[in-house]
């Protein structure tokens, strides 16, 4: 553990206690004992100490920018690239490590069997919802995406048992997303929340909760990190649904790809559906 922390204190400061234990091939209890052995009362305090050490190293002229920190006015373009890539990779790793696979399985089953799937999201989350919508539509599932509150509420009036309502919100407190999900629940639809906050209002309003683990810095340019984590979970959900009807999905993807193949330039026609 000491070697990991000393090799890259900035990266180590971003690890959860279980992630550090896994990387060091040891247990959470051993990590806790390590903290006490070096005079630090608990793991959160160790993370703060590592982050401070990384910041000091950077301030003293270290070549590497401090990963996980916010974009500053003095960052070079290379620094910006390094920070963004680091934060997004970290969000993907943390989201994967913390994902409730059993909850994902229930979401996959509900979507795969649904008569229709209505997706709610506004702002940056709307783009994530649109991505899921087009994916599901391509493999023959009746899916709709609603980015306007009134349109979403109107759509919920047609939902019932056997339907799915999926709401996406990083904070889980966006009323334009929470209200339609609750309305869908009242109609008897299965409700799924995709959020970064497991105790949020949105999560508490859903039967199934899929949680991202994205640490947004104050410089939230287009909510970049949260969007990447949300898209990753959407991909997991979609592939899980597609796998349930593998042969039919393969055929549908080939046919939908072929529908626009003539609109591509000649060199692009040699590509396969998997390339897109």
Automatic annotation (TrEMBL):
Residues 1-57 form the HTH rpiR-type domain. Residues 107-247 form the SIS domain. It holds the Pfam family SIS. InterPro entries: Homeodomain-like_sf, HTH_RpiR, RpiR-like, RpiR-like_SIS, SIS_dom, SIS_dom_sf, WH-like_DNA-bd_sf. One of its GO terms (biological process) is carbohydrate derivative metabolic process. One of its GO terms (molecular function) is DNA-binding transcription factor activity. Keywords: DNA-binding, Transcription, Transcription regulation. Gene3D superfamilies: Glucose-6-phosphate isomerase like protein, domain 1 (3.40.50.10490), Winged helix-like DNA-binding domain superfamily/Winged helix DNA-binding domain (1.10.10.10). CDD domains: SIS_RpiR. It comes from the Bacteria. This is Transcriptional regulator.
